[in-house]
Design brief:
Elements: H1 2-22, E1 27-33, E2 36-48, E3 51-55, E4 61-64, E5 69-74, E6 79-83, E7 86-88, E8 91-93, E9 96-102, E10 106-117, E11 120-121, E12 127-129, E13 132-143, E14 150-151, H2 161-167, H3 175-182, H4 191-200
Antiparallel strand pairs: 1-2, 1-5, 2-3, 3-4, 5-6, 6-9, 7-8, 9-10, 10-13, 11-12, 13-14
């Protein structure tokens, strides 16, 4: 009986999660499509890594794949672009929508990756975990003349040597920013401010600078 219930939950989980998505709030915004880049459309929008969901004034819902989208801007000024070609856990992501955190000579983007976990039963037949979803943010950097972004190491901590080494090539011409990396003051918490300083030529200013003794 327990095995039967577990099998049912495993099969139904994707549908339950999809139904949950329908109740997430839409946000007003503007979007442009890849085949009509000069025409802007308005509506209530929900942006996922794998699709743009649009609801018009009549309540009709339309879904667009990332490759069908050119640009998205929500009323709160959050921006999204289609992106592809970067690696996530050794797997290449060929189509996605990513949030643009800063742009200029270097574009900083954030890819939200949602992992679905199936329910788990213990040895005694009791439910150990009911499953669900967990979201993971992956930060991407792309030079203005590059066709594909590069994913930063997922740890993203100031103490992470790999994280600092991945950032270093982008800021070689800015000794002040190089020093911030050497002092282990940059993490994903203040990465947007760090890249903004690079793009604008201004000093690094943030309220979330970090230090580490590791």
């Amino acid at each position: 009986m327990h095995k039967f219930l577990l099998a049912c939950l495993t099969l139904l989980l994707p549908q339950l999660l999809q139904a949950q998505n329908l109740f997430e709030s839409f946000k007003p915004g503007t979007y442009y499509l890849a085949d009509s880049r000069r025409v802007h459309y308005e509506g209530q929008l929900k942006v996922h890594s794998n699709e743009l969901v649009v609801k018009d004034n009549q309540g009709k819902v339309t879904r667009f794949k990332p490759e069908e989208v050119y640009y998205i801007k929500l009323a709160d000024r959050t921006r999204f672009l289609p992106s592809a070609g970067f690696l996530l856990s050794g797997k290449q992501i060929n189509s996605s929508l990513v949030e643009v955190l800063d742009s200029g000579s270097v574009m900083l983007m954030r890819y939200e990756h949602v992992t679905t976990m199936a329910p788990m039963m213990g040895a005694s037949g009791n439910m150990v975990s009911y499953g669900g979803r967990s979201a993971q943010s992956v930060y991407l950097l792309q030079l203005a003349d590059a066709s594909e972004p590069t994913a930063l190491p997922s740890a993203g901590m100031a103490s992470s040597k790999k994280f600092r080494e991945a950032l270093a090539p982008y800021v070689g011409a800015r000794p002040d920013l190089v020093q911030l990396l050497a002092d282990k003051r940059i993490s994903t918490n203040n990465l947007a401010d760090f890249i903004h300083a690079l793009n604008t030529g201004q000093p690094f200013v943030t309220a979330t600078a970090e230090t580490s003794t590791f």
